[in-house]
Amino acid sequence: MDWSALPGDLLRLFSRRLHDPLDFLRFRAVCRTWRSAAAASPPPFLPWLLARPVHPTARPSLSFYSLSSAALRSVAAPSATCCLLGHASSHLLFSDHGHPSNPLLLANPLTGADLPLPPSPFDAFAPITQGYYLPGPDSPVVIYDATRVFFHHPGGGGGESTSPGWTKVPVEDLVAENMYHAGKMFVCNDRGRLTIFDATTLAVLGDAAPPPPPPAATLHGDAFRCSSFVPSGDELLCVIRYFRSKNKAQGELLEDPCALEVHRLEISSEKGAKPRWVQMRSIGDRMLFVGLYQGFSLRAADFAGLEGNCIYFFRMDRASRSFIYRFSMNDGHIDELPGPWMHACTWFVPSLS
């Protein structure tokens, strides 16, 4: 059979169902006919699970698990001394501890492309806790620790910089979570209260009390919650997961996925109305992928065979295996999905751009 003679419409249908970037590249490499029949722009890719980087003296590579192909991938790290700061959709944010100036690097691990960043506003004695970059119109790189938040627009723009190339958000409390979204900076303190900043003027636009906890009878006595901000279209969502101590002597945590909640930030245009979190009983066609901090949203309609109104998350056991779970908001059912024997770090959305 002459595979190059397959109808173009059939080839285009095949190419749109390849939700792993390496499968898409292999499809395009078969022959000239397949390459021309493939979609001009790649189909949306399902996320990969990124393993926690190994000790800096080990072989400099990054390990990923593809949710689409269930394959383990290994991609060369920028250097053996790079420390991963956070997840991103297309790029990973690193800090190079092996360099005297401890520079920041925003790199696409698939293409090797990187975006230049100015020197870090943090010094060696106060290292960055986390960082992230969620590509979009005028989206910045955000880096932060427990008391400070900075952002930088790789393409320019943003507020007035108080440090070379970086804009400092004037937070007054301890920083628990934060998210840049739709021209605003949302910063949650250690008590769960959210402050909203205008990213251009840095003026405070409002604040919101934390979402109310579920009934005490549904939680263990020592339970505490972890919030993950998820930008989804024009909305900002907050996924709340509850944990409790499993083995206090060893610091183990046990998650209670049955208490998982999703809240939407409602910002009213009425004068004097305060922003507030509204619990959602359904997220429609959306699939949310959450880690310990930020998360992201995809449309199930873009992926054949997948259902919306669900949340994907992972957790680890003592054997360092990552268990991937899917929580259905339709009926509260939780499915365990096939997963790798790796110590997961975060979700990552691969990109060929």
From TrEMBL:
One Pfam short name: Beta-prop_KIB1-4
Coiled coil: none
Residue ranges occupied by any KIB1-4 beta-propeller domain in the UniProt entry: 64-323
Protein name as annotated: KIB1-4 beta-propeller domain-containing protein
